[in-house]
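Structure ticket #2291
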Amino acid sequence: MASINKVILIGRLTKDPTEHNTQNGHKAVRFTLAVDRNFKDANGNRQADFISVVAWNQLADLLIKYCKKGKEIAIVGRLQTGSYTGQDGQKRYTIDVIAEEVQLLADPKDSKNNDNNSNSNDDFNFDGFEEINTEGLPF
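Resolution: structure written out below.
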């Protein structure tokens, strides 16, 4: 039987991603994503969950280059659990989202500026990306 482990999140970075290199030379970034809950508490305030995310290699490069504290992003990934023994000898359990896809979302101030010209990418450097003509595609 097949299993499914898929997570989709939209939220804001609580601080700049932290870059790490493994002993094998692989690059990773770790960050926390603040994801608003879909309801308000008794005082009318919206609460958030703070989700630990890890991205590897090329996704790590993208996040380091373009994402800073407060940036809104969408992530598709999977949950991964782990454990370790702390310095006090107690076993600790972890849950991380391992990012497989990342989409950079427009900041609210940017969307106001782009209302008149929604196809303008003049202020953003898309190194290694190429614009695709979608005319004639069936979707």
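Closing remark: Residues 37 and 99 are 20 Å apart (CA to CA).
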